Amino acid sequence: MDSNNKQQIKKQVKKHIPKDWLCELRIAYRILMESVNDIKRTGIVNIIIITTMAAILTIFGILFRFTLSLSSFAGELGNVLEISVYLRPNASISVVQDRVKTIKHVKSVRLIPKADAWKSLQKELSLQDMENPLPDTLRVRVDKPDNIQDVLTQIKPIAGVEDLGYAKELAKKIQILTHVVNTTMIFVVIISAALTITIINNTIQLVIQSRKEEIEIMRLMGVSNWYIKTPLVMQGAFYGFVSSIIAVLPLNCIQGLLSNMHKFFLIPAPVYAQNIVIISLLLIGTAFGACGSLWSIKKHLQV
Fold first, then answer.
1. What percent of the chain stands above pLDDT 90?
2. Which end of the chain is more exposed for a tag (fewer CB within 10 A), N or C?
3. Same-domain check for residues 195 and 71
């Protein structure tokens, strides 16, 4: 009988075995107690592991929070970027305005009549009475700085458009800032994951070595693999979760600093930024801890 047939028979037999929920509850309790005992066996090393992981996750949390604020600043600067569309003297303003509004990525179109622009310029520069040399202008806002060039290309051929202008250098700097912020965050996540998983891997390896004989006896007694593996995975997840909670504490100081910075520059802070960072820390710390345990089990425990 091949292994596939054995597995199918085993599954069919399991379906007909009545479930004893009390027994399953006892097994879950035993698994939990095994995890607690493994943590106790590790002793003072627990403090070193949790402190190290907390430091790594704190750096990640602070950089993540700064990244959200930088993205908010970049987005706000991008929102104020406008394309100036200068119209010909004989152009139909309403027709051009309607055409521009239909272009993809255009957020809004605002008309600046040449008479209003000339009055404003005369006040600013104290100009003498002379003929108005300014054209009617459309101020076009784009949803993202990355889409400005695409919108420019589509506006140019529209009949009645004489010239276009926008803050090209500012748009480039915003694009560079956004790219640097996103790249930095990816790099930090990778480094944090590598360090956290490595620490957990080494710790679980020590636990496996200390329980080598016990695990071997359980295997000989026919104990299922998940019963052996689960306490180790829970131990790694515990380290990640506790480290994440500790890493959350310094974020309160950073939150206050960033809030003051947003108020100073009159730029709204990203919505629920603090909550997003806290939830991300808890999820990432716990996930990295569990992944480190799984990696160590696969590498050092043949079950």
1. 2
2. N
3. yes
Which class for 271: exposed (0-12), middle (13-18), buried (19 or more C-beta within 10 A)?
exposed
Whether the CB-CB separation of 83 and 155 falls below 8 Å is answered with yes
How confident is residue 46, by pLDDT bands cut at 50, 70 and 90? confident
Asked if the structure places residue 18 within a domain, the reply is: no
Specify whether 179 is located in the same domain as 273.
yes
Asked which of 143, 166, 189 is the last residue of a domain, the reply is 166
289 and 195 in one domain? yes
Tell me if residue 108 falls in helix, strand or coil: strand
User: Same domain, yes or no, for 115 and 246?
Assistant: no
Per residue in 137-191, pLDDT (tens digit) is: 888 888 777 788 888 888 888 888 888 887 666 667 777 877 787 788 888 888 8
Structure tokens at 91: 């152009």
To which residue do tokens 């101020």 refer?
Answer: 139
Q: Is residue 11 part of a domain?
A: no
In the three-class reduction of DSSP (H, G, I as helix; E, B as strand; rest coil), residue 164 is classed as strand
Which of 147, 166, 185 is a domain's end point?
166
Q: Which two tokens stand for residue 122?
A: 């005369």
Asked if residue 288 lies in contact with residue 200, where contact means CB atoms within 8 angstroms, the answer is yes
- What is the average pLDDT value for the chain, to the nearest integer? 78
Judge if 107 and 209 occupy the same domain.
no
Percent of the chain with pLDDT over 70: 79
Q: Is the pLDDT of residue 257 over 70?
A: yes
Residue 103 shares a structural domain with residue 251: no
Q: Which residues of 33-62 are buried (b: 16+ CB within 10 A; e: fewer)?
A: ebbeebbeebeeebeebbeebbebbbbbbb
Does one domain contain both 185 and 72? Answer: yes
The answer to whether residues 124 and 198 belong to one domain is no
Instruction: Write out pLDDT tens, residues 4-36.
Output: 655 565 555 445 444 555 666 776 667 777 777
pTM above 0.90, yes or no: no
Q: Which two tokens stand for residue 57?
A: 């996750």
